[in-house]
């Protein structure tokens, strides 16, 4: 199944391609070291099992729609050498911009939630 923009959707309205695009966009944000799986543990286990048996892989960012609201949830590992609030603000802006552009309607509201795990730089970095 695809949405109005031709992006693939998984079960429960997941926007599979958009989730992948948002995952990649987050990886380019200054201060983001990695994108962690934002889905609950059970969903994450199902996704890993699906990847093992050859089903299409989802992005690590969770995207859901409820009426006119597009919700985007992400979890990132951030560099301790940079201010985490600023990194999260940049990450939220990237998610909001990308998801807003992918939305079916200009009237849609995009709600973004980004959490962080701060990672200390390894020696020699």
Describe the structure.
The protein has one domain (11-119): Alpha-Beta Plaits (2-Layer Sandwich), CATH 3.30.70.1350. 34% of the residues lie in helices and 26% in strands. The chain contains three helices and four strands, in the order H-E-H-E-E-H-E. It has helices spanning 16-27, 41-52, 84-102, and strands spanning 32-36, 62-66, 69-79, 109-119. Strands 1, 2, 3 and 4 form a four-stranded mixed beta sheet that branches. Residues 1-14 have low confidence and may be disordered.
Fraction of residues in helices? 25-40%
Strand content: 25-35%
Q: Main beta sheet: strand number and arrangement?
A: 4 strands, mixed
Assign the CATH superfamily.
Cation efflux protein, cytoplasmic domain
Q: Could you tell me how far the N terminus lies from the C terminus, measured between alpha carbons in angstroms?
A: 44 Å
Taken together, the total number of domains comes to: 1
Poorly predicted parts: 1-14
CATH architecture: 2-Layer Sandwich
Query: In terms of structural class, how would the helical and strand content be classed?
Result: alpha+beta
Number of helices: 3
Mean pLDDT over the residues: 79
Q: If you consult CATH, what is the topology? A: Alpha-Beta Plaits
Write down the overall geometry.
globular
